[in-house]
TrEMBL record:
Topology class, membrane: Multi-pass membrane protein
Known function: The plasma membrane ATPase of plants and fungi is a hydrogen ion pump. The proton gradient it generates drives the active transport of nutrients by H(+)-symport. The resulting external acidification and/or internal alkinization may mediate growth responses.
InterPro entries named in the record: ATPase_P-typ_cation-transptr_N, ATPase_P-typ_cyto_dom_N, ATPase_P-typ_P_site, ATPase_P-typ_TM_dom_sf, ATPase_P-typ_transduc_dom_A_sf, ATPase_P-type_domA, HAD-like_sf, HAD_sf
Residue ranges of domain Cation-transporting P-type ATPase N-terminal in the record: 7-74
Domain of life: Eukaryota
EC number: 7.1.2.1
Catalytic activity, as annotated: ATP + H2O + H(+)(in) = ADP + phosphate + 2 H(+)(out)
PROSITE patterns per UniProt: ATPASE_E1_E2
Organism: Astrephomene gubernaculifera
Name under which the protein is recorded: Plasma membrane ATPase
Family in the record: Belongs to the cation transport ATPase (P-type) (TC 3.A.3) family. Type IIIA subfamily.
UniProt keyword terms in alphabetical order: ATP-binding, Cell membrane, Hydrogen ion transport, Ion transport, Magnesium, Membrane, Nucleotide-binding, Phosphoprotein, Translocase, Transmembrane, Transmembrane helix, Transport
GO annotation terms (biological process): proton export across plasma membrane
Amino acid sequence: MADHDPLEHEGPKKEFVRSVGLTSKEAEELLRVHGRNELEEKTTPSWLVFLKQLIQPMPIMIWIAAIIEAAIQNWPDFGILLGIQFINAFLGWYETQKAGNAVAALKASLKPQATVKRDGKWVTLDAAFVVPGDLVLVASGSSVPADCLINHGTVDVDQSALTGESLPVSMREGDSCKMGSTVVRGETEATVEFTGKNTFFGKTASLLQAGGDELGHLQKILLTIMFVLVVTSFVLCGTAFGFLLGKGEPFKEALSFTVVLLVASIPIAIEIVCTTTLALGSRELSAHGAIVTRLAAIEDMAGMNMLCSDKTGTLTLNKMVIQDETPVYLPDLDQVKLLQLAALAAKWHEPPRDALDTLVLSSPQQNLAALDVYEQVDYMPFDPTVKRTEGTIRDKRDGSTFKVSKGAPHIILKLIKDPHMCEIVEHSVAGFGQRGVRCLAVARTLQDGEWHMAGLLTFLDPPRPDTKDTIHKAMAFGVDVKMITGDNILIAKETARVLGMGVNIHDPKSLPNMEGDGKAPKDLGKKYGKLIMEADGFAQVFPEHKYLIVEALRQNGFAVGMTGDGVNDAPALKRADVGVAVQGSTDAARAAADIVLTQPGLSAIVHGIVTARCIFQRMKNFINYRISATLQLLTFFFIAVLTLKPKEYAPAKIPCAENPEELCSPDNTEWPDFFKMPVLMLMLITLLNDGTLISIGYDNVKPSTMPEKWNLKVLFAVSIVLGGVACGSSILLLWAALDSWNPDGIFQKWGMGSMPYGKITTMIYLKVSVSDFLTLFSARTHDGWFWSARPSPILLIAGILALSISTVLACVWPTGHTDNTPCEGLAYGDYTLMPLWIWIYCIFWWFVQDGMKVGAYWIMHRFNLFDINTAAVVNKRDATNVSSPLARGSVGLVEGKLLAAKVEEAQHKLNHAAKADEGLGRASMNLARASANLTRMSATLKQSRVQAHHGSKPSSVKGDVEENVASVDQVVDALGAVAMSLTPKVRDDVNPALESVREAAERLAVNTTQALTGASTSAAQAMTSSRRV
């Protein structure tokens, strides 16, 4: 079988001048000309990383506010703003540096060395100092330090890091041995042709520069939220500022109040909290063997719906393993005895000399102790001209001798004279070849002295033990896993079949190439998006194809993850939303990746998906709260400044106690023209509430079963409801307090007496603080009641701490003027129960607020407002409904693949059970019938999606959904028949697999129904189960 090699396109071998070594002076001169032999790596100085944290859009807002505060000489507020600014910058800088240092340390621990002839002597030096023209020694176990041309002899080179091919490639005189590959057999001298950026390794890295400067997805979302809130803040604060000036308020005081209100309303802490939450998540991931080099990649991983994975070394072990299928052609032979025969064609008492010797001698089924009865009297090692090994063996028991040979089937068949046997073997090899399984032929001589075919050892690079389970778990979380490999397409299909990934594997003929300027085609996503989305994988691809696959998916709105370990994976890792370098990756892969795995396998990926979705939920909870808190604060002061004029509610003046002829205010305070809160109180609300909300990074949340996406319309709608209730209750309380001097007022009727203006200010401070934090506990549960999800102890303690401090401050606030605003502690005077009544009032309105939130969600789910239902099941990050063909095609795509895999697993279990009990034949037939029903159901669902796209009437879509429900019922009924036909013992063994099929089928039906009808999840479940009741 011809193995595909992406380096074949380089053409025939070329004539070259063999190096005899350089002098140190020549090497120094060439080093100045060609530079160091390493990848060009752009590093950003630490000070510049910190500076960038201070000049981003959100920090610029804080700078403007701080400058205004300094201009009006409001130094306390200026200091607070600077503190917020530098704390935020330090957090971002620290996490960036920490991740970079971890990867740098990993890279330093793998620094390559080279053996070079300098000044007539062989020396070992840092491979970075190798130059073109050097004479280098490449020997078994060493890395190739640069692109070299073999001077003489033959070596076997492992190029899996470059091409994805598991088996070594034989290199002879004049062949180009690439930097990044490893010599596994032989030793020779080679002439260095290219170094550094001019190597195949280095040229691949040029693709890494594309798309590196664009904003991350999380940053775009935060900027969108910031833009809406900043515009709203500027409009309302600007209006309030103009009103204050019009009422004769001094310019300096009006400006100071407006600026601080603006800063307090803008979610300055949003980056601190989000960065801290991501940092806490990165620590959790590092504990599971994943180093996060870009914090925002965690948010991208939460929304990831496509995971493109390299095969060799990522999905597989990157080593050949003997398979169970072992055709034998001589009597009394089985796999173990055939392995022993193959070992006789090797130096079994010595360490393995090449990959095939390792395969035979190190196999778990091998029993070398049984070979002690044999003596090897002659041995013919592997030679490129003969292409097989041969051992002449003497049996110590009877003194007889025979020969054994192993090699490629077409080579061994040349020894066999029986044409019928040759035909049988060729048929077997062709059958294995169709599945991508390789064969090693073993032959021996018998008493007649003729060669006879003994059997075939089948082998391939098997999947890692946890890969299949990892892939199915990823699918269960709505992530479509695609295999992208440079290996042969038949091998790729067999690996995909074993892993249950689907066998719709394409070769690169169906993909475009890079344009002349090295950029992706402009119509890439539009032209190839559907093909790539529906494919299960691609084989025999070049590095540029991997890059184009990722780019096409990203252009079509998918959040794409890419895993890999080799140089050929690096460009795609860089371009992906989430690039994951697996354990043992090359420097290029680690440098390009967002996450570096330090443990084997992909299980850390699934854990990362779960962790990322938990982190996403925490960030969404905080942002939901922060938007509502901003709207509450803004609208409250806007309405209060414009409508509630304290002077109009001031108590009537009465004769002064000292001089009855003069009139005095019973409050002994001049009530102002408009209500305002001291700047210090506003900043305390921001610092205490938002500061302690960093603890939300530890909150208890439930990860979504589908990739996360930001539905900002829903987010703002819920925030408006939460903020509106909190604002309305604050306005109501302020009005009642201002009216407390009215004998017919609420306060007077309820026996709370009259409120001095200073206490009114402090009371509103306490009310806003308490309502603010209680809003978080409502926002964090989304469409559930606030008690439906228990907060983490850390968040609860932080909330109690912040609310306790706010309550104490409100009680003992010094009597007098703060920022020219009258203030007085609520615990002073004759009536000291006001803090208790404020808390009761806030809790009452908290229940109202939560009820309004639940009601808002019910209405949105009931009528699919803002696509709240369809957005959850359309598996495309930039789509919320099925209006586009790709969005429609994404619905049920992963669920369908998972269902097919689960059906295959169930069939396998039943077939295995049937071998033990012939009575299970009917059960297997029932499952096959269920499988056919599933296939028809999938086709019906696709057809209904097409009809929905072409404008079917709602009633037509409803009919299609009802038909799909009936199909699901057939599946469930068939599964029930399967279960009933089993014996109790076998049923217990098979039931988990059957239940997995049932769950996958119902999930596919529910998600598709939800996408087509816009029904909520519960309504879709009811529609798919109503016929079963």
